[in-house]
Amino acid sequence: MSSHGATGVPVLFKGVGSGKFINSRSCLGSLQVFEVNAVNIRIPGCTRSLASESSQRSSSRRQTRKEVSKVEDPFDAPTYNIPEKPVTFTEGASYSILILAGLGVAAAAGYAVFKELIFEPKEYKIFGKALERVQNDSQVRVRIGSPITGYGQESRNRAARQRIPNRVWTDEDGNEHVEVNFYILGPHGAGKVGAEMFKDSVDKKWKFMYLIVEIRSPSPAQLLLESYVPA
Question: What is the pairing mode between strands 39-44 and 31-36?
Fold first, then answer.
């Protein structure tokens, strides 16, 4: 370290361990005098300024790193930090009612299907008996051919074809009657069938009141296959 004079004289200072010299003139000639062990040491005023600036830059870099570290990617936030809203008693009761209602609808649909498959409706039972009687009749087979199929309505809609028009009632003697009307189709022609059966209150068997087949093609004809004659 070397110095000349107190003001305006170039003074060179060598930083410890840095190998660099600082010209006091670049510090605008300002020197600060310190006494250490009865020796006056002159230090340029810019030394403090440079140290202060270096400290401020270090602090600024640390603050920037802290700010950067505090910024989190919202897409990386774990979902378990989302607080769960507690379910109130009213909401729980509403959910229970909805679940019970759904189970009720499913049970009703299941029962309807079960009843449809296991407990065959009366009109379908009478339709089956009448169609079987028509299919086994030689007069009908000669006119429209065989095999013979039956269906409820002349429509391309499958549900309409499966729906059998019917009428159910009970007579004055307590006998249940079922009347059905349906169409028949064979390889060579088609026709319409009208039938009525009643359930005998004595032997509990279904018996024909009448069974009429109206042949419409290829040539019109009307056939009476069954007619009830009281014993």
Answer: antiparallel
- For residues 11 and 23, give the distance between their C-alpha atoms in angstroms, rounded to a whole number: 6
Buried residues in 12-29 as b, exposed as e (16+ CB within 10 A) = ebeeeeeeeebebeebeb
Cα-Cα end-to-end distance for the chain: 148
Half-sphere exposure of 189 (CA within 13 A, CB side): 18
Q: Does residue 4 come out as left (phi exceeding 0), alpha (psi in the -120 to 50 range) or beta?
A: beta
**Which long-range contacts link 41-44 to residues 24+ away (Cβ below 8 Å)?**
42/3, 42/6, 42/11, 43/13, 44/11, 44/13
Q: Which residues 6+ apart lie within 8 Å of 81 measured at CB?
A: none
Chain segment 169-194, per-residue pLDDT in tens: 999 888 999 999 999 999 999 999 99
Rounded to two decimals, the pTM is 0.49
